[in-house]
Amino acid sequence: MNNFKFWSPTEFIFGRNTVNRVGQLIKKWGGTKVLVHYGGQSAVKSGLLADIEKCLQNDFIEYVKLGGVQPNPLDTLVYKGIDLCRNENVNFILAVGGGSVIDSAKAIAAGVPYAGDFWNFFDRTVTINKALPVATVLTIPAAGSEGSDSMVITKTKGGLKRGAGSSQLRPVFSILDPSLTFTLPANQTANGIADMMAHVMERYFSQTPAVELTDRLCEAILLAIIKEAPVVLREPDNYDARANIMWAGTVAHNGLCGVGREEDWATHGLEHELSALYDVPHGAGLSVMFPAWMQYVYTSGIDRFVQFATRVWGVEPADAKKDTALKGIKALKDFFSSLGLPVNFEQLGAKSADIDKLIATLKINSGDQFGAFRKLDMRDARTIYEIAAKG
Amino acid sequence: MNNFKFWSPTEFIFGRNTVNRVGQLIKKWGGTKVLVHYGGQSAVKSGLLADIEKCLQNDFIEYVKLGGVQPNPLDTLVYKGIDLCRNENVNFILAVGGGSVIDSAKAIAAGVPYAGDFWNFFDRTVTINKALPVATVLTIPAAGSEGSDSMVITKTKGGLKRGAGSSQLRPVFSILDPSLTFTLPANQTANGIADMMAHVMERYFSQTPAVELTDRLCEAILLAIIKEAPVVLREPDNYDARANIMWAGTVAHNGLCGVGREEDWATHGLEHELSALYDVPHGAGLSVMFPAWMQYVYTSGIDRFVQFATRVWGVEPADAKKDTALKGIKALKDFFSSLGLPVNFEQLGAKSADIDKLIATLKINSGDQFGAFRKLDMRDARTIYEIAAKG
Question: What is the interface pTM, i.e. ipTM, of the complex?
Fold first, then answer.
C-alpha cells in the first residue's frame, strides 16, 4: 500500500426536505453574499431555485444569480461569474445542479481571488492555493463533484476539455435530496451511473498491490450500483433506490476509493476528447470507452480483471484466467447496454473517421504518454478508439 | 433510507515516516502551545515520543507533556489534564497512543473551555459546543477514535463507564503509520480487531430497510479485516496487512458505516459493564458479548443475519434461514477464537456470579431499555450475559 493523504471535509446533508436548511448552512460556513450558480431551466421549472431563494431571503442572506451552465461547462461563463463575484463582493458560491454546474462554480471560486487568467489552473502553470467557499445542492448524481476536490472545464476556443483540482475546492457542504432526482430523464440517470462506476474503476484498476480494503470498498460501491441502477430506471420515483445511487455517486469520487494506490484515469482522458468534439454526455462517452480500454489492457494485470469479474459480477472462475477476465468485461458492457447506454461509436453519435481529430487533441491534453495501469501512447490510444468504434 | 448528516473532516496522513510531519500539521491547524498526551511507557521506549518532541522543537512549537493514560481511561487524569492546559495556556492537544489516550485527550479538549465539571458531558446534562482542537498519532488500530466524534471515560468513583460525543471532537488531523503497530502484542492486536469489527456490526445490524450501499460498505470492511487479521497475527511486521487493518479501524468508526439507518450499540452497552468491573480490554469483552447478543436477537431480523452469513462469511444458504443465520454467528465466533480472543466468561476472566453486579451498573448507564435492532430490557440483558458466560 502506498502512503496517502485522505481529507474529505465536506458536510453532507442527505435526505428529504433538506434543501430548506441551505440558509442556515451558508451562515454556519461564513457566507454573507452568495452567488447562486445554476444551469438551464430545470432548476427554475421544478421550483427548486425559487425554494432556495425563499430560504436565503428568510435568512436575510444577500445573493446574486448566474444561470446558463451547460453540460461540458465552458470557460466563457466562468469568466462572467468571476467578474460578477468581484463586482458584487460575493464571498460564497452555491452551486445548484449537477457536476457541470458545480465544476463551473469551483472554477469561479478559484478564479475570484486569483489576479491572472483562471485558465492557468488548467494549463497547469499555476496551482490553486485559495478559493471562495463553494457549497452545492445536488440535482444529478453522477460526477461526484459535490464531494471532490476537482473540476473539468472546456475552453470554447479550440474545444480543449481540461481538469484541475485543489483541496481548496472541496465543497464546505453539500445538500443531497434524492427526491430531487425523481424527474431526471432515463438517459441522464444512466449517464450518471456510468460516470460514477467509472470513477470507481479508474481507481480500482491499479498495479499497486495489497490494498485489500480499498479494493473491497470499490467493489461494495459497484455492487450497490449494479443492484439499484435497474430499479431507478424502472421506478424513477423509488426513493430508496435513488438515495443509494445518489450517495454512491458521492462516495465513488470523494477519494476513498483511491487511497493507498496509483490511480489510472486513462479512460477519462480518452473520453474527454469525445465529449469535447461531439458535445456528448461524459457518462455516455465513458460507457463506450471503458469496456474498450479494458479489452485493450487486461493482459497487463489479468489477476485484477479476474477479481473484478468474480467479486463484482459473480463470474464463476474459468480454467483460463483470460476467459474469466473477458467475461467480467462483457458483463460490464452488457450492464451498460441494459441501462440503455451506448457501447460503440455509432450508438454514441461518434465517427471512426474522426479518430485522427481525437488523437490530435488527446496529444495536446494528455501528452505523449498517459494512464497508469498500463502506460499508453498515441498508438495505443488509436487502437482503443478503434475498439470502441466497433464496440 | 433515513435522512443523515455525514461529516468526517479529519485530515488523515497515512503511511511510513509520516510522524515527522507532526509539527507542520500542528502549525497548519493553528496550534501554538501543545499538550502532548500519552499512555504508559511504550511510546517512551519505542522512541516515538522523543521523535515527536524533536519535531516540535525543530518547528519551535511549545509543548507540555502528560502521560499515564490507562486502558479504560479515568476521569482523574482528565481533570489533571484540564488544569494543566488552563495553567499552561495550551491551545492544541496531541494524543499519542490508542483509543484510550485519544478519548482522554478529547475529554480534556472539551473540558478546558467549559466552566463546570466535565463529567456533565457524560451524565448528559450538558452538550459539548466547544473544544480545543485535538490531533492524533495513532499507535493501536482499534477504537477508531482517531476519526470519530466520540469518547468513552470511566469514573473512578463507582466505576461508571460512559460515552459522549460532539462533532467538535473530530480530530483535525490523524497520523497513521502502520509500522508503529509492528510491535503490538498479539492479544492487543486481536482485541483491536474485535473492536473495529464490532463498530461495523453495531451499525450493520439495523432494522432500517433499503440501505444497500451502507450494507455493502460494512461488508467490505469486514471482508478485508477477515482476510488481513490472520496475517498480522502470523507476521506482525507485515506492512501491508498492518496497513489494511489500521485503515479498517478508522473507516469502521468514522460514521460511514452507519449513514442512513438506525444504529444499535446494545453490545457496546453490555460490554462496558464487563470492562468497568474487571478492567478487561474492551475488544476482548466485545468478542465475548457480540456472538451472545447475536444468538439472542437473530430471530428479530433473520434476513439480516442470513445476509451477514452469506455475504461476509460465505455461508451457503441452507433451506432454513435459521440454519444459515446460526452458521454466520458461529463463523464469527470461530473467527474470534482463531485470533486467540475469548468467547466466554471464563476465557475473559469474568464470573457468572457477578451478573447481578453487571445488571446493576448497566441499569444506571443504559436505563430500563437499550438497543435498537431489538429493544432490550434488564431481563433480556441478563439472558445475554448468561449466554455469554457459557459461550
Answer: 0.98
